[in-house]
């Protein structure tokens, strides 16, 4: 009887611990493509020519100045900029070089953002649960981030916890009405007609995946049939 | 919310105190003749599965296989017990990469819907019989449900956490393991959570619990 009780108690307790919520998610499943457009714009009134800024603006909260400089000198900026240019050409737009005398219909500006974010968790069933804000990064086990041991004195009973450094990348493209850019002054803002956000978990270094960017732009154009009106 | 918690804590304390006082008398009296009498307390530990019903199915229609439920009761007469229970059920569903339009734009990505319900109950049960190979019971639980509603796309989540009042009628079958005091229990619960948010009105689901009970 004693053994039976022990076995049943063990089984009962094992039920309690068998149900913890863990999810496995792969990095590319976190990729997002979002577009926003000017709802007052008449896209059919615009032609199909565009110019593009000669480099990509890089914003980061962890890259050193030397690293940022290497983004340009190493050719990553040019490669990214040319890929965006080529996607627009592929979609039927005509590229106008910046030194051309013709005035294009649109001007494209690209900004790459690389953000490092650290979060802490502790062994227990609440791991993986979201935080206290309506929109909050949801950390998953396989999010391509590095981890390191971390001790948090507020939870001495658990003997410590772990931290994640996760790197998020966003490639942002804005399609600006070229005439508004020419006419812009203190009282006349530029008119951004279309915005593309490609967001995902990325590596710590400056490399990027051209396939992901390619898919992102395909999805962005699919989302935006009004561009071809 | 604090009031509900306070009432629940007082309720649990009262039940515990009542059982503690009666344990010596009832357990000793029934130790060797349990089948002819009835236990003073019953504890259950169950694995719990969940099935969405109604509006909730529009959010998640997949069966939940992640759940737990524990229940402690004290019999105040041969037929009636009062007690408390605690547990959780986790529902989630993955949606393949798709595009969702909204005013002024669109977003493409993989989506995950997630819902956690964690009831903290007081309950009452009616016992038809206390002997035999199968012992049916019916009950009603009520109290607070801690709920977490979440929609995740990419690295971002929309989260809504709240406590809600709920009612849960239930049916239970108990299969005793001889005179050991232990037994297998199977319980069906119909959970009605007064949840009127996120396009879900009166969140409903059925939970099926399978586990062990210890009658003392």
Largest sheet of chain A: 8 strands, mixed
Q: Spell out the helices and strands of chain B N to C.
A: HEHEEEEEEE
Q: How many strand units of chain A?
A: 9
- Proportion of strand residues of chain A: 25-35%
Instruction: Give the overall average pLDDT of chain B.
Output: 85
Share of residues in helices of chain A: 25-40%
Strand content of chain B: over 45%
Please give the CATH class of chain B. Mainly Beta
> What's the N-to-C terminus distance of chain A?
80 Å
Give me the secondary-structure category of chain A: alpha/beta
Radius of gyration of chain B: 20 Å
Domains of chain B (count): 1
Report the uncertain regions of chain A.
Answer: 17-23, 122-160
What is the rounded Rg of chain A? Answer: 24 Å
Structural topology:
The complex is a heterodimer of chains A (about 230) and B (about 220).
Chain A (H helix, E strand, L loop, with lengths): L1 H16 L14 E6 L11 E4 L4 E4 L4 H9 L2 H15 L3 E2 L10 E16 L13 E3 L8 E5 L10 E17 H6 L8 E10 L8 H14 L6
Parallel strand pairs in A: 2-4, 2-5, 3-5
Antiparallel strand pairs in A: 1-9, 5-8, 7-8, 8-9
Chain B lengths: L1 H29 L10 E13 L2 H4 L6 E10 L4 E23 L2 E23 L7 E19 L2 E21 L5 E16 L2 E16 L1
Antiparallel strand pairs in B: 1-2, 1-8, 2-3, 3-4, 4-5, 5-6, 6-7, 7-8
Describe the structure.
The complex is a heterodimer of chains A (229) and B (216). Chain A has 229 residues and is an alpha/beta fold. Chain A has one domain: Double Stranded RNA Binding Domain (2-Layer Sandwich), CATH 3.30.160. Chain A is 26% helix and 29% strand. In chain A, strands 1, 2, 3, 4, 5, 7, 8 and 9 form an eight-stranded mixed β-sheet that branches. The longest helix of chain A is centred in the first third of the chain and has 16 residues, at 2-17. Chain A is globular, with a radius of gyration of 24 Å. Residues 17-23 and 122-160 of chain A have low confidence and may be disordered. With 216 residues, chain B is an alpha+beta fold. Chain B has one domain (2-215): Porin. Chain B contains two helices and eight strands. Chain B has an eight-stranded antiparallel beta barrel with strand order 1-2-3-4-5-6-7-8. The longest helix of chain B is centred in the N-terminal third of the chain and has 29 residues, at 2-30. Chain A binds chain B through residues 1, 4-5, 8, 11-13, 15-16, 18-21, 23, 29-37, 39, 129-131, 133-138, 143, 166, 168, 199-201, 219, 222-224, and chain B through 45-48, 66-68, 70, 88, 90, 92, 97, 99, 101, 103-110, 112, 116, 148, 150, 152-160, 177, 180, 182, 211-212, 214.
